[in-house]
Design a protein that fits this description.
By secondary structure, the chain is of the alpha+beta class. The protein contains four helices and twelve strands. It has a single domain (10-233), classed as Deoxyribonuclease I, Chain A (4-Layer Sandwich). It has helices at 29-39, 62-67, 135-148, 218-221; strands spanning 10-16, 43-47, 70-72, 87-91, 95-103, 111-119, 122-130, 155-161, 179-180, 197-201, 205-212, 227-233. The longest helix has 14 residues, at 135-148. The strands form two sheets. It has a six-stranded mixed beta sheet.
Amino acid sequence: MLNRPPQDTLRVATYNIQKCIGLDLRRRPERTLQVLAGLGADIVVLQEADKRLPPRPAALPHFLVEETGWLAADLGGAGSLGWHGNAVLFKDGVELLDKGHIPLPGLEPRGAVWVLLETALGPVRVIGAHLGLTGRARREQMHALARAAKREDSAVVLAGDFNEWSRGAVLQHIAPGLTFLPPKASFPALRPLGALDRIAHCRRLKAVAHGVHGARPAHIASDHLPVWADLRAV
């Protein structure tokens, strides 16, 4: 289990939970929550948090989320945990101030979510996204996210599954106001090669540590490993 971050930092994580279906092809939401507990995070952005078919019920049931001490931003509806599979969980001590959706362009149905949270670092806008499978779609979607990240009222964190195999600044140059943390391999979980899961932050924040959480059962709970960052106000 990861040590808790220092009091003057905020630990943010991103995790594609693959609808709580592990590499053993078993849907086990309690195992997903075990991985989340091991992260020691204050805020977690999730992808593929809902089942695929309408009405897209939560793959990670609301009652289990609450029983394990998490609060979920109400971003979905009709029993969903998020919107387009994107959800945000946070711990007690973090307060939800506002929330919303960010439509993303592309042929695939994609969308991002945002929450404005009062944290130990002050107000932080966290944007969660799961980008498309084609390079053109990802670039167009990143332009939409860059516009959403231009905020004066709060610090900004962008996190999610970017589906980008290149470790170069393919997407970063579209959002020069954000600093993307160095890529760390998080996919596939058993033998990570691709740094698909990324975290970026605005100039009001700096990262004092970041990494990939590979402790059991993360190696089998999803095809992705969670990525985390400890952030401090500048």
